[in-house]
Amino acid sequence: MSGTPRARALGAQLRRVRKEAGLSLRDLAQKMGTTFSTIGKWETGERSPRLEDVVRCLDALEVDGARREELLDLAQSTDGPHWIAVGMPAPPQQLVALMDFERRARTITEVTPLIVPGLLQTADYARSMMTASGMKRTEVETRVAMRVGRRDVLHRNSLHFTAIIGEAALRAVIGGKSVMIDQLRFLLKWGQQPNITLRLVSQESDWNPLLEGQFAVITFESDDPIATSENQISSLFFHRPKDVASFQERIDQLLTTSMELPDTLGWIANRVTYLESL
């Protein structure tokens, strides 16, 4: 059975650092006096290394400074039932973990009541939101580049991405009319790809799980699925089967009440026409 999201995140980071150091699994194992299969299980998240193991690994890889502190922090309580990070923007290791999960995903289903899902945001739309939130300009550009870069996963035919979006998200005029029109046209473009499904939830709908806030479920070919949930001050990863199943039940409910893809694309096209007429 695969490990927790935090263990998998730590493993992904250790693998990245090892490769940057130019070492093979056998090379690192020899330096640490352990087996390469053990390190391999750490890197896949199948097994959680003890804190002292991570210290020895970082010593062997000559990692110090802020990066060492981040990895040691990530190594704390990797077997916990959840992984929460308080404070926005998300810590670097958590963003890297999310990108790794997206890269290896078989399916991603994201529910967003009030904004366009991150993987489908244009650079100008993302920049407008981040700037309005008070983020420093230098950090904004770095994060916009990372968000746009994450979109590369959508070019994989082996990944199917489903976005369930609240109508309010597409009625908002974030960044001004021009930015929003470009964003809506961008959704129309991606909504025609065979591995992308867009589903719109009407504002006139009865109570539904969309009203509980943003969340996503990510499934993999061989690893157990995970769920994520974010709000203004925290980001949380879930991996216990009953928790992930609860989020999946909400998705199933939304799929029965949201607009089908053709109706969703028609609604977006009409919205573009309306904004262009203003």
From TrEMBL:
Pfam families in the cross-refs: DUF5753, HTH_31
An example Gene Ontology molecular-function term: DNA binding
InterPro entries reported for this sequence: Cro/C1-type_HTH, DUF5753, Lambda_DNA-bd_dom_sf
Top-level taxon in the UniProt lineage: Bacteria
PROSITE patterns named among the record's database cross-references: HTH_CROC1
Domain HTH cro/C1-type stretches: 14-68
Name the record gives this protein: Transcriptional regulator
